[in-house]
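Supplementary Methods S3. Input chains for the assembly prediction are listed below.
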Amino acid sequence: MALKSFEVEKIEKAGADYVLDVKILPNRFSDASGHLGLAKEISAVLNIKIKEPAISIKEAAEKTSSRLMVKINDSKDCLRYSARTITGVKVGPSPKWLAEKITSCGLQPINNIVDASNFVMLETGQPLHCFDYDKISGQRIKSIIVRRAKKQETMMALDGKNYELDPSILVIADPQQPLAIAGIKGGQASGINDGTSNIVLESANFDPIIIRLASRSLKLTTDASTRFEHGVDPNITETAINRLADVIQKVAGGKISKGIVDSYPHKQSKKALGFDLIKFQEFSGITIPTNQIKDIFKRLGFTIAKQTKNNLVLITPTGRLDIERFEDLAEEILRIYDYNKVPEAPATGILIPAVPNEEITWRRQIKRTLAALGLNEVYNYAFISKTDLANYGLKWEETIAIANPLSSEFEFLRPTLIINLLKNAGSNFRFYDEVKIFELAKVFQKGAVEPYEEWRVAGLISRKDKKIHSFLELKGIIEKMFEAFGLWNLEFQDLKQNSWLLNGRSAEIKIDGESLGFIGEINPTLTQKYNDDYPAVIFEMDLAKIVKSVQEELEYEPLAKFPAVIRDISLLVSAETRVSEILNIINDSENKILRDVDLFDVYEGEKLGLNKKSLSFHLIFQSPDRTLTTDEIGKSLEKIISNLKAKLGAEIR
Amino acid sequence: MDLKEIEKSAIIEINNAHDIIELESIRVKYLGRHGDLTEILKSLKDFDLKERKKIGPKANDLRQELEKLLQNRKNDLVHRADFPAIDITAPGKKKEIGHLHPISKVQEQIEEIFSSMGFSVAEGPEIETEFYNFDALNIPANHPARDMWDTLWLKSQDSTPTPNKKLLLRTHTSPVQIHYMETHQPPIRIIAPGRAFRYEASDASHEVQFYQLEGLMVDKNISFANFKSVTSAFLKRIFNKNVKIRFRLDYFPFVEPGAEIAVSCPRCSGRGCSLCKQSGWLEIAGAGMVHPEVFKAVGYNPRDVRGFAFGFGLDRIAMVKYNIPDIRLFNSGDLRFIKQF
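Predicted structure tokens for the full assembly:
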């Protein structure tokens, strides 16, 4: 059974009996949520006959219809309402067999009448309810009305709670007040207690959506409401009410009124469905003999109304509300035949080459490159807390909030990857002195009309040792990554007015004038809160912009034919002088034969005097069309040096 | 001494020589003018022809061998001064490289397997509308099947959201199927990896945020047998070719027939262990033949096309492959975890 219908959660001994705990699939509640339905299913799977319980009720002379009237206000809300009465019952504890059965199914025994209703519900799958006949208002013939609740109507339910009702909720009422919330819970006023002697049995069928919405709005889920939500076969109310009358008579005595008051205005007829045998062969990829197919349908309770060469006409068992079309029937055959017995067949058809997804390819490249450069990849939650928003000065009105967050930590969708990366650093310092990480994920922001999401890549380096500066290391990683993609023209410009980063230690990352993101050292107010006050350098870039800039293909440059000449110069300049200023002067001085300039040493020390630093560069001279002469290199170098002296007051060492 | 004795003792002495002076005295001892081997060579002329033919070549070979050994040893001793020995058993110096997240690794592997079977990679948004996440997948509003997905809803930006347009964090990667079919015509072979979210308290096997991979194949004549073939081929590649695969009935509103796919537990080979809760099987994927209502929702005529879809947890596969006990480790940012991969 576990393979062909439902998963068996467990089988365990309960008293003299066994409990089989089965996970009923949501589409099979209508036929298999009762013991009888499950037994039918098992009989079909194992191909054995089923023995249904015999119902034998002794009816009294008095007609049910002379004691009770049922009125359904809207037959869309209530498909069917069947009722009977029993007079002279003796309410008391259930006999041992009944109490045991109820307990083993996880319910609490209450009294013989309520237990009998639960027992028959578990057996048939039909939710049942009993009212105290004498507590229903009215004289000789009592009336039961199925109607929508009125605005602000309230009802005290059997669980002792007072429920506020509204017109979206269906109630069972007498002419004065609601007796029960239809399909969900009975009311206290009409409930069965030790003093009860005359009862009304209800076996009804309510609209699944009304019950679901009411159960939601009242926050009240019961065995009955769950069954109605999933749909119950309206044709079983009669069997169920007779079975209930039978059981009650056996455990509590009493006289059963004659006949059923049954309101069933639109009788659900049996569904006939065609089953195309050729189509099934194509659909399944297997040929199962028609006789075997017919046998499986019969075992499952289908009737074969008609058979032609390639077609069957089937009458669906009424409980199987899930069977609507060919595919449903195909599933019935395949599961009972056994999915595992269907042979595998490779798919044929036009061969279409897989189309590479450029975005994904680049994301993969970026991940691999960053890892190769020493950063470890982390995955973080997409969420941040209200405290995070406040700490980072983010506006909540620009941030997307979760309507039903799991906790305050998960209240907003993160608009940046930085926040969680810094948290990662903080938590890793328990075990490491150095944290180097990156993440590639989506961030979320409110847009003008709709929220938008975009891919970002962010990285972080943080160390316990405050003497080691990590900015240039992280900058180097970014530059190296772009070099790996063939881009050498990354620019770093001073970033002003970013409250997360230190002024003077942060930069905007640009390529061809377009901003990709930023890099910088995190403001100590944030590292104090998230990173035990250890300094941290971070970067964050927009992934789509990176991909756009790297997509231009690499182009081959002819190999140099003539040798390069390297000359080194060391400059003594004021400490504030920036490398970019020197590079600009050098490059402006010589634009023909100077191929490259590399900074290879920076020295600051007392020997140099206050506010001075020494910078040493390799100047690489090379021409694509000739070997350079010592003379022309000397002239060029002279020009460079004189410009550095004039514009920066540099001393050449 | 005879030749054998000379060979034996000379080799030992050469190998144990500590410096060049010692080595030279060893050379003199055996190959010098009055050396042991030289004496034997000198005395050859005194032997009769038969003896001479027997001993002569051997003695000459030995002389050559000893000369070669002496020279090699000399080279060793000369270079040792400039190139002192390195303790080659000491640990290698390692340049620190970073590690990729285990889910990235598994995802790459899976993408490559499917790519070799002709599947392209598709993606979709993580913020979805109710329509794409539910309605189009044959999970109508107010249907109990919706309870299968506990949903994280977004606070509305719009005060009166249109029905079906309510925003949520996608609860599965299945909406990508809808986006893709809306914009492409069959034949379709795609996989869609990505992050999904559930309103679910986390524990060792449940997470509010997890990673899925969805697959979809649509064409004119796709059969249940094709469905079994493709999914089995994949599972055998990602686990190993001997893994057993089991299909059983399951219910998902967007497929019919629906199936759950399990593999024999790779850790215990199906004998039963804590990973498979003694069952010998690990449930890996939910799958089935695409429901006609789904085709209708994307504007296909269900009479013209058939297909299958499957979905599984990337985290689940990573947990099984790498023996990871707790799903929460994936989102922990813990380097003790990441650095193992």
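Chain B touches chain A through 80 residues (CB under 8 Å). Chain B has a mean pLDDT of 91.
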